[in-house]
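Sanity check

After download, print the first record. It should look like this:
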Amino acid sequence: MGLLADTRKGDTASTPDAPSPRVVRSVARLLRLESSDVRRNAVSAASVIVLLVIWQIIADLRLFEQTLFPEPRGIVQSYHYWWANGGLATGLSISLRRMVMAYALSLAIGIPIGMLIGRFPLADWTLGTVVRLLQPIPGIAWVPLAVVWFTSVSESAKIFIVITGGVFPVLVSTSAGVRTVPPAYLRVARTLGVRGLGLFTWVVFPATIPSIVAGMRISWAFCWRSLMAAEIVLAARTGPGQEGLGGLIAVARQLDQINTAGMVMVTLAAVGLLIDGLVFHAVERRIRRRRGLTE
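Expected structure tokens:
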């Protein structure tokens, strides 16, 4: 009997424990998220395919002149040509370099000023007034001043135009986020002895992160648009080999290469979609998950 009891105890000890309910819930939540992502990606891919099919059908019907309406097959041919001679890769790398530089400067300017405007009434009455005056002005309207203030062939003119387009979305979104910080957070922090810069660092800034990320997402799109406008308008004043994607559109317009212009536009859309999905969507989803805003 003793030997039998010892054997049963050994069997029980060697049996693996069942997973805890918390682990089961975590795995189920992860599977739901992955399933949701798969469905979303499948629907998105299907919608793009349907759009391309409809686009090609309209092009085949010849409802518009071939010099006025690009078609998917012609765009594919343009991709092959411009990729083979290195023009597309060069233009894309130049535009991305300008974009990253101007976008980083937009964030470095917009986020601190937005926090000041949102937190201090005096800053809102002074800097906020200036921001509200300049915000409606589109970036392209700054081109004449940029050409006068900077050398016409300088990168500074394009960077300046992009900053004027991208700084205001993140600035306004940041200031709005600061204003919506729950007053209870501030009262609790002051009760615990948090003052001055510590209040910004440990309370205001973390509570404003969702608004900042939303503003960064919008700012990226505005910077991308402003960059293309600047490169197109200033293409004639740009040095050889420094045109970027916008300069490629300008060349295509001059030579009536509508499929080349369509190729650049598809590239712009693809880059924007890639950045939005891989960076901003992933960051926003992580923030929402950490704050308990998703199931």
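If your output differs, re-run the checksum step. Summary of this record's structure: Residues 21-63 form one domain.
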